[in-house]
Amino acid sequence: MSTMPKEQPVFAEERRQRIADVVAAQGRVRLAELVESLGVTEPTIRKDLDELQRRQLLRRTHGGAIAYHGRIEVNVHDRGQRHRDAKELIAQACRDEIVPGESVFLDSGTTVEGIASGLDHLDVNVLTNALGVANLVADRPGVRHTLIGGQIRPLGGSLVGPVALDNLTRFTVDIAFVGASGLTEDGISVADVSEAQIKRTVIDRARRVVVPMDSSKFGTSDFVTVCSLDRVDMIVTERATDDVTRWCQEHDVDLQVVEG
């Protein structure tokens, strides 16, 4: 009868620190990789991950762990100053996905606002819950727009709540550009529950869902999950990691990487 190798307690803390360092550096790690590299059993690694999650040094997932990033949500204006070059490239690539005559939903968020700023002479119907997007497209030639009603959420510059959700059920769009602040193999996530509700409703009403996202958000999970990757048709980014490439392949997501 085989026996399980016994863990040596003296090395437990050193091993956990190594796990925390790997997750912090890579953004995520798989259980099988830790078992192989550390030479201990799966139950031992699972206990380590449970303890590290308790300390908020990582977050457990099915089959591994991801980096834990506790962060304060930044207002939409300040977010616009981050990763500007990447966001401009992503916005242009997203505009190229729009076919003249289509109906388009533009979500709140700085990258999506970049899409709105270049919509000229495309003969499109724009639906949005974002105040910034509405201002940007108001005078664009060839662009008809509808701003849904609802409660103003100042931090996101968006309209949310029951009225906004009810309004969205009256529309169907050809393509929806949905922003997110986190991406893992479990799906896309955001910081606010009301924003997540809007995004889920839009996804249900869209024939095609595109997520524009710069690579700084890869491997992180924000407060609330919006949807699984199975609900996303395309991700547009400026750089793809091996993990993101694999996730997209596994969930049949078209990954488009733009270059400057």
Topology of this structure?
Elements: H1 12-26, E1 28-30, H2 31-38, H3 42-54, E2 58-61, E3 64-67, H4 76-79, H5 84-95, E4 103-106, H6 110-117, E5 124-128, H7 131-137, E6 143-147, E7 151-153, E8 158-160, H8 162-168, E9 175-177, E10 182-184, E11 187-190, H9 193-205, E12 209-212, E13 224-227, E14 234-237, H10 242-250, E15 254-257
Parallel strand pairs: 4-5, 4-9, 5-6, 9-12, 12-14, 14-15
Antiparallel strand pairs: 1-3, 2-3, 7-8, 10-11, 11-13
Helix pairs in contact: 1-3, 5-6, 6-7
GO molecular function: DNA binding; DNA-binding transcription factor activity
Keywords: DNA-binding, Transcription, Transcription regulation
Protein name: DeoR family transcriptional regulator
Q: What would your notes on this structure say?
A:
By secondary structure, the chain is an alpha/beta fold. The protein has two domains: 9-67, Orthogonal Bundle (Arc Repressor Mutant, subunit A); 76-257, Rossmann fold, CATH 3.40.50.1360. The chain is 37% helix and 22% strand. It is built from ten helices and 15 strands. The protein has helices at 12-26, 31-38, 42-54, 76-79, 84-95, 110-117, 131-137, 162-168, 193-205, 242-250; strands at 28-30, 58-61, 64-67, 103-106, 124-128, 143-147, 151-153, 158-160, 175-177, 182-184, 187-190, 209-212, 224-227, 234-237, 254-257. Strands 6-5-4-9-12-14-15 form a seven-stranded parallel β-sheet, with helices on both faces. A three-stranded antiparallel β-sheet has the order 1-3-2. Strands 10-11-13 form a three-stranded antiparallel β-sheet, with helices on one face. β7 and β8 form a beta hairpin. α6 (110-117) runs parallel beside α7. The longest helix is centred in the first third of the chain and has 15 residues, at 12-26. The relative contact order is 0.12. Residues 1-10 and 72-81 have low confidence and may be disordered.
